[in-house]
Amino acid sequence: MSASVAIVGVAECDLGSTGLSVLELQVQAVTRAVADAGLRLSDVDGLATNNVGRFSTTSLADYLGLRPGWVESSFLGGSAFETYVGRAVQAIGAGQAEVVVVSYASNQRSARSRRLGGVFDDTVPEAQFEAPYGPLYPISYYAMAAQSYLHRYGVSREQLAEVAVAAREWALLNPAAFRYGAGPLAVADVLAAPLVSSPLTTLDCCLVTDGGGAVVVTSLDRARDLPHPPVAVLGYGEATSHTAMATRDDILDTGAERAARAAYRRAGLGPDDVGLAMVYDSFTITPLLSLEALGLCPPGEAAAFVADGHTRPGGKLPLNTNGGGLSYCHPGQYGVLLLVEAVRQLRGSCGPRQVPGAEVAVAHGTGGIFSHSATVLLGVER
């Protein structure tokens, strides 16, 4: 795959507890990202989004006064937005669109719409094998993966907690982060927090916030005439594995390795080329399995890698430099904000949390219970 498409605009909507509707937040994200790209709303002829009612793209397009010729609204969970970027590359290459906006927003905190429940969809046949045990969705499923990981690789509970500690260090450098003013986090704090689903405590879990963001995608040729250095889409890949946990042969096989392999192949790159990583962190176990699937750590070694400080500010592999879903923002589906932060880092516009000399970033989204994975490799022209 030769890079022919770039991300040229990025933005967040208001974050935290906003009191705004989903559509109001979406409009903020889209209009801010389009302005950041140096374009007008009328330039947009492609739209990819979800979470705006039953017909997400038509609802948002109508609200914005757009008449796009290409839309995408597959509901894949947190990996949807990396997937949308891959589909946007295809659409632009095929001449179906010239300027595509990928966006998302949620008001789950202020609307109090997030709740823990049982099996997500009791119409799924496999759910009959899980529902009798009363799992909390989704945490009990991630907790099973965490328990299995600790057992298989001899990882300590303290090492798992280090993921949340490292995320907080980055959040303290980001004024937009929900935990920006909360102060540093210690391993003892994570372990002492209320237990939700063993071995995960509340501080092993992502935030519940309002928020979202948008990215603007166009051809690399057009991108070179716009205000910011273009961030090229170098490669992408996706993989689907399962719905119910009962159908998985190996609870730690997330399918992410297949998505990453496809992205590296299309980019002509490998894990050694990656300078920084934006990886979904819905729970502390999620980035560990993803780092290993991405080839950034050998199997079973990601926990020790994080515990040794390599993903913190100044480390050899900066991870989730905005604070991630654990300390920055998690509006239900976090994947679009992985892209926003990766682009800002590659542009060199992150202020005190800026990673020096970053040239290649990976944004890796996780959907469902490791059910769908999508990987995007991004690089900046210097």
Automatic annotation (TrEMBL):
Pfam families: Thiolase_C_1 (PF22691). Residues 237-379 form the Thiolase C-terminal domain. NCBIfam families: PRK06158.1. This is Thiolase. It comes from Yinghuangia aomiensis.
